[in-house]
Amino acid sequence: MNSPSRSWYLGQETYLKVVNPEESGETDYAAPSNVMYCGPLQKFQT
């Protein structure tokens, strides 16, 4: 499940992905092209 949280007045979006091993993942969307990672996930920034 991808759950976006939008802060329209700042023009920012936060995405949270919760992994469920029982689902196939067919409804998941890829991260946006301008995604920014923070904290321990910064190593995934391209």
From TrEMBL:
Name of this chain's protein: Monocopper oxidase-like protein SKS1-like
Species this chain originates from: Trifolium medium
